[in-house]
Amino acid sequence: MREGSAPLIRREDYTAPAYTIRQAELTFDLDAAKTIVASKLSVQRDTAQDKQPLRLHGEDLNLLRVLVDGQSVAFRHEDGLLVLEAPEADSFTLEIRNTIAPEKNTQLSGLYASGSGLFTQCEAEGFRRITYFLDRPDVMATFTVTLRADKAKYPVLLSNGNLVGQGELDGGRHFAVWNDPFPKPSYLFALVAADLVRREQRVTSRSGQEHLLQIYVKRGDLEKTEHAMNSLIASIIWDEHRFGLPLDLERFMIVAVDDFNMGAMENKGLNIFNTKFVLASPATATDDDFDGIESVVGHEYFHNWTGNRITCRDWFQLSLKEGLTVFRDQEFSMDMSGSASARAVRRIADVSSLRERQFTEDAGAMAHPVRPDAYQAIDNFYTPTIYEKGAEVVRMMHTLVGRAGFAAGMKLYFQRHDGQAVTCDDFAQAIADANPDSTLAQQLPLFKRWYSQAGTPRLQARGQWDADNATYTLTLSQHTPATPGQSAKQPQLLPVRMGLVGRDGQPVALQLQGEAGAAGTERVLVLTEAEQRFVFTGVTQDVVPSLLRGFSAPVLLDDGLGDAELLVLLAHDADAFNRWEASQRLAVHRLRAAVQGSGAVQLDEAYLGALRALLLDPVLDPSFKARALQLPVETYLAELITPVDPQRIHAACESWLDQVAACLQADWAATFDAMQVREGYRPDATQSGQRALANLALAMLVRHAVATGDAVWPGRAFQRVKDATNMTDRLGALEALVNAHAPLAQPALERFLALAGTEALVVDKWFQVQARAAEKDGRVFARVRQLLQHPQFTLSNPNRARSVLSSLVMFNPAAFHRSDAAGYVLWADMVIALDAANPQLASRIARALDRWTALAEPYRSAAREAIARVAASTRLSGDVREIVTRALD
Ligand code: 0A1
Ligand code: ZN
Prior knowledge:
Radius of gyration: 28 Å
Bound molecules: O-methyl-L-tyrosine, zinc ion
Structural class: alpha+beta
Oligomer: single chain
Distance between the termini: 21 Å
Shape: globular
Strand content: 15-25%
Number of helices: 28
């Protein structure tokens, strides 16, 4: 939609569909310039409702004809809808013929061209860009799809379900007929017509049913699909084992496409993936890429039950499928990672991402509840709040009812709702009903505030040890700050997993006053009011509270602990997550003091000693060490140190890094050598932990060497860029040189690009490393400007566009927020330019200034001006219009 803002769609206005479509027979004559779509729909009127016109969604379509039961009928166009007066009969056949132009579809929503192939993306409202339809998730039809196309150009023709016919046609054309027996909403429809090759495997499920698994990619990419196939098989086994959910399809296909707005899409039986989440070889993909593939393959596969078998009634319920499916993919990745320590590191990664992306969202102009109340462009609501915070809400339910209770709840959810389009309430009710004695069931309305209230709750904790009575009183209180449109918040239900750690590091038994029975050393306190006190008895020594273990609730904790207490937790906490958390908070204390003081951090001996002890600890996992010895990212620090001065935050981080690099130089050197992996490459938790710590050590060593004029470590890093046998090592060495602004950075970049050849995903990394580099004297920003002119740069491929633009505006605050406002000028230019072709992509970039009101001057005023300039543009899409309007409200 162009010009003017799109209407606000409200959750409270939901009404059941007046008509439903039972069956859809679609025929496509595929051609990039002009595709003809013929659709034959069995439509049924809901006779319980008053008779009303049939209103079909349609966008950018060229309509050729409309027939009802074979007769042409009158129709009109109204607000993007095709409106037909209600036919006499309650059930009728509607036939529509229209054309579309896939090669002109630069939005990548609907049917579009990528390279020489044709692909679809229908979630959320892309199907209406293919043909007229009741394009809403509570209308579910069975689809039979005939694809006709030139055989040489499009040898592979795929759609959802099972292949029920294929053959030759005149003029070098061929056809395929696909039938999907599962009724599904139109957003799960998919088709692919392309020249692709495939890896395939047959598997037999526990029940004895045979399934065909296929992964389709471009020629030359086949050997990079092994990890995706292994991940798919692991996902199938895991879902059956953990949740009793078997693969219900004869055929499950994954197709990789170069041009894709998001990560991947769970179309029934025909998942379409961004190549980034399919293709991996040790030479082209990092350990993180391998992990990303495992988790996204899992995520899309798990949607087959949580999303496809049970779908959303309306888009306000998006978290019903996304929050739950993220929770499931997180659990899958944790179960796959092996040891308890590797699980903890996964949790640390997930929580870091939540804080960096969702906490910042919840504090900004786009803050919205997990179940939003209103939207203009639904594509703007595929957010960290719907996904990651939604997953935390599911995780809290899991905490409250336990693993077995949650499994029972899932079982009940499927018994009740399989084949339906339902709401978040239905899900919570099923989990509660399966666990009637749980706190969740008893406090369900209170718990459900997690769905309705936006904003990150603040949890304050204060403890008092009473030596005379041997009691420890913990007072917990909460409040949630106002968010746009929600000024007053009510208390929420917060599960607080906790322990008490003696000053000697020993765990303390937790006996609540008035409670009988044996006491353990860890428990979950449930805060349900604004303030509550918990009195522990038999506490004979002063203790340090270790609260929110494993991050048991998505809140910001203020426990008032000082350095001495955090050092106890860092060294001794039985909970690995809270050990890591202590390391982060010790760093934040120092960074905050620097930002608010002289600018440079002063690292004391006690702190450096603790870091050294951590680095050299013989028991801790390298992956844990790598996490605990890294600073929180600057975007998250900006949430903790306000008003936000990105330059001062960056300067403080740089000074922390300089000192840690210098003071621990010998330890970093020993660590780098000790962490070399001698066996063949495996992307598992053990090896990737070693590589992560080696890369961190190398970055520190190169930094210190550049500062002191030493050439040895930069030389070793350069050598590694040339000789590394895997991408994790190669990229790590390149980043070390680039971030330290080493003289060898430029030759290393040249070598890296030469080695990348035509591997698009590796070229993306080359752009990304430079656009995310640690800013120094404006050099990174200047480089970004050059990169935008590079012959291999293009705005039309989302991955490439993001590798430079998102890297700058989302991940490199010090390069982006400049006192001369040049970053904001570039941002505004790029948002406007991108919006003309791809509004979804543009509106993601537009969100970089969501938090402008928290900025210090001069950034704040300059950011506002840039947003106002975008808002003043007359040709904005509804997507970007919504973002900039909310930002200025
Ligand atoms: N349901 C997908 C995410 C998705 C949403 C919209 C898209 O349109 C461009 C694409 C993908 C998931 O959660 O994986
Ligand atoms: Zn999803």
